[in-house]
């Protein structure tokens, strides 16, 4: 009788039951700082690509744009990966929200928060994007990314 290797046995809970892999991301707590809004990103996961099961960071919209651009670049390097689905858009911008006070209106902030949450969950569960190290850093590392 062979013994299971360490990696697979760390996920076993009882008998032959193996904990399913999942990732869930919540974007919440928008905070205005000077001339931008930052969002709290809370992640819970069993994906082995992450060093912890629960972690939280704060990100601003510009960092989401940088993340999407990075993923878009990675996708262009591996065009066959599109078979797993496309890269979702970020919640839209319009001129009044970018340059006016509209971007600080509660309705706009809430719509953006929902869109950012949907975007992150779509890429974190994507069969190609979920393995990109830059995404792991975006979700786990509290340092600002390419501002």
Automatic annotation (TrEMBL):
Top-level taxonomic group: Eukaryota
Every PX domain range: 17-147
Gene3D superfamilies: Phox-like domain (3.30.1520.10)
GO molecular function: phosphatidylinositol binding
Ranges in a coiled coil: none
Matches recorded under InterPro entries: PX_dom, PX_dom_sf
Gene Ontology CC: endosome
Protein's name according to its UniProt entry: PX domain-containing protein
């Amino acid at each position: 009788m062979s013994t299971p290797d360490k990696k697979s046995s760390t996920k076993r809970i009882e008998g032959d039951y193996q904990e399913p892999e999942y990732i869930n991301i919540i974007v919440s707590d928008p905070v205005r700082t000077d001339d931008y809004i930052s969002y709290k990103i809370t992640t819970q996961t069993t994906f082995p690509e992450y060093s912890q099961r629960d972690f939280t960071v704060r990100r601003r919209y510009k960092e989401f744009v940088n993340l999407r651009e990075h993923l878009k670049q990675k996708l262009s390097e591996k065009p066959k990966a599109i078979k797993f689905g496309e890269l979702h858009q970020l919640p839209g911008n319009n001129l009044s929200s970018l340059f006016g006070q509209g971007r600080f209106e509660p309705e706009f902030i809430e719509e953006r928060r929902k869109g950012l949450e949907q975007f992150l969950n779509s890429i974190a569960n994507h069969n190609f994007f979920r393995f990109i190290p830059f995404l792991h850093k975006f979700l786990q590392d509290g340092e600002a990314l390419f501002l």
